[in-house]
Amino acid sequence: MFTVRRWWDRHGSQIVITGVVLGTAWFLRETQGAAIAEIYHRITNPFGVQPTPEEQLTNARILELEAQLAEVEGQKQKLESLIQQGTDQKETLIVAPIIARSADHWWQQVTIGRGSEDGIQEGFVVSGIGGLVGRVVKVTPNTSRVLLITDSRSRVGVVVSRSRQMGFLRGQGSDRAVMQFFEKVPDISPGDTVVTSQLSRLFPAGIPVGQVESVNLEGTPAPEAIIKFTAPINNLEWVHVHPFEGQKPLSSQ
Predict the structure, then answer these.
(1) What is the pLDDT of residues 209-226, one digit of tens each?
(2) What is the extent of the structural domain holding 19?
(3) How far apart are CA 16 and CA 11, in angstroms?
(4) Which of 48, 68, 142, 223 is most buried, most CB within 10 Å of its CB?
(5) What's the pTM value of the predicted model, to 2 decimals?
């Protein structure tokens, strides 16, 4: 008897702990963790109050309205920014929404919700937040079609702001374009800004166009640079339209 007691004193606590662990494991296995989930629920929701179906619908409606309000506020800020830019210009600018854009011609053209009744004419220049966007090529009483500078047919006379090196930009159907220089060894570096040139026949001088991303001095037939447009042309929703004298055929911009 004394031997059994000594053995129990030495190993009893281990047996009890092992039994508790095995019993808990068996209990969790049989209940599939429901007890732990219930305890967690009690801790996080001590009063056990569940939202009613009506409350769930109300909460969902509130979230929907909050999302709509955020969208309206975002549109309002964009419009206010464009209007403010317009008031800073000496010439009259027309703020217009982009109302149509074909997936097949995403980088070629857009349709804006202003037309001849708003004073827009073919050849008017279109810009947006960030810089140049394109040029009006067709007008109806209430809409206008804009040829984007990202279109592969587009040619824009441009100049490097820092070094005044000139060239022309041709669209590539993306948010980047190729600038071809007139000089054989142009002074240009990545990060340089590019604006419309005073020699451009279809756009006024000084409109921001993009930023130099890379340079290829071995380009044929002339040195080239990859230009990333500063205007987010792929997702613009509002633009500025303003007149420009001296419209020329679309083959040369």
Answers:
(1) 999 999 998 877 889 999
(2) 2-44
(3) 9
(4) 223
(5) 0.63
